[in-house]
Structure formats: C-alpha cells, structure tokens
Design brief:
This protein is α+β, with helices and mostly antiparallel strands and 238 residues long. Helices cover 31% and strands 31% of the residues. It folds into 2 domains: 1-53; 55-234, no CATH class. It contains 4 helices and 10 strands. The longest helix has 46 residues, at 2-47.
C-alpha cells in the first residue's frame, strides 16, 4: 500500500516537472520571437529602408594588394600627398594644409587633458574643427595655440562630400560604391545606405615595442549607389 502511494507520488512529480519544462520552453520561444521582431524594427528605423539586411563581417579576407591600397587610403587620403599625413606620421604642418586647401572657417575649439604630457609641458591639448568647401577636418594641436593656427597638427577626423577632391587611387565622391570596393576590397559592414572599413593592426617593432594602427572609414551611399560622403577617423593619435 505504502509502495503504491510513493509510486503514485513519483509519477505525479514527473508529470509536474514535464509540464514545467514545457512552460519554460514556450516562454523562451516567445521571447526569441519578440527579440527577432524588434531587431527587424530597429533595422528599418535606423536605416529608413525596408527589406534590407546589414551584413557585418569582423574579419574580412582581402588580397595583399587590396590590404595595401586600403591602408594607404586610410592614412594618406589624397592623391597628391600631404606631407605628414601618412602611416606613423601624425604631424602635419598647418601651413601645408592651408596652402593646399585655402584658409578655413573655424567651426569650434575644444580643450582636453593630455593623458601623458611630457615633463614641463602643458597638461592640455585642443581639437580644432576646420571647415573647408566640402570638407571638414578635426585637427589636434599640442601644445594649444592661442590663434588656433598651430605650427603642427594631427588629424582625428576628416569628412569629405565634394568631388573636387581627388582621393588616393584616383577615387572620388560621386563614383559608384562598386568602384571603391573593387579597389579597397570587401568592407566590414555593408548595407544599402553605407559601407564601413574597420582596420586595427598591431605590429611588433621590438620585443617591448608594439606599433598600434587603427582607423575607420565610413562611406554614405546614395539611392543611385554612388558614394556621397566619406568619413575617416583615427584612434590613439594624441
């Protein structure tokens, strides 16, 4: 009698456990369905387009030639070289910038604390935003310049929308995005409205010295699949 009672209790417990597991699985499936619908809504809201998927590829396979062209496009920007604007060379003479592009309008000046100032040097640096026709440059200055026209600068960000600027590898604003990809290789992010190249590279120079190279190139693409704007940004320069 007692054995039969315990056996019935065990059966009852198994039925309860089975019902609980089905309940948990149903909740998980429902949550997953809602999450997927939310992702789709965010994609449509963020990009303003329908039935378009964003393809993100953290590691992209490019040929040696494509990799080299992408690196020079990311560092040198222009077809006619601007002295100092190159890999490992982050000191550009302001006079060279103004001689090439003309005197800009100063849009803004911001001051920041230097993370590792040399002994006896100012503890602050500044970021000056210069506006040229169809091009915006955020330039860093150390030490800060009272006239905001320092002798040397480094570039933190460059935006170009004007096709008059001939870029590295004869690329220009207004050309089809397919032409950029054929020269620079496949991007890390691509959808109907944009492509993005993310490059992060560490090179061991000496046993205790590592060269860090990181930049991002964002291209806005119009309805005709032509490039309308290119933005370059660099990290870790200051």
């Amino acid at each position: 009698m007692i054995n039969i009672k315990f056996k019935n209790i065990r059966i009852f417990c198994c039925i309860l456990l089975f019902g609980y597991l089905l309940f948990v699985e149903n909740i998980a499936n429902t949550a997953s369905s809602i999450s997927n619908k939310d992702d789709g809504a965010l994609l449509e809201t963020g990009h303003g387009i329908e039935n378009t998927e964003t393809v993100t590829t953290p590691k992209v396979s490019r040929t040696k030639e494509e990799t080299e062209r992408l690196e020079t496009f990311g560092h040198e920007l222009f077809d006619k070289k601007l002295q100092g604007l190159e890999k490992g060379g982050f000191r550009i003479k302001t006079a060279d910038v103004f001689d090439r592009f003309g005197k800009p309008e100063i849009k803004s000046v911001e001051s920041f604390r230097h993370r590792d100032p040399p002994p006896g040097k100012p503890g602050m640096y500044e970021i000056i935003t210069w506006q040229f026709p169809g091009m915006l440059i955020e330039a860093g200055s150390y030490p800060p310049s009272e006239t905001h026209e320092p002798e040397q600068v480094w570039f933190k960000r460059v935006d170009i929308t004007n096709p008059d600027y001939t870029l590295k590898h004869k690329l220009k604003i207004g050309q089809p995005i397919s032409e950029f990809i054929s020269v620079l290789g496949q991007p890390n992010v691509r959808d109907k409205n944009e492509i993005v190249y993310n490059v992060t590279k560490e090179t061991k120079i000496k046993p205790s010295v590592i060269e860090f190279d990181s930049f991002r190139i964002h291209m806005a693409v119009g309805p005709d699949q032509a490039v309308e704007k290119i933005e370059w940004t660099w990290e870790g320069v200051e």
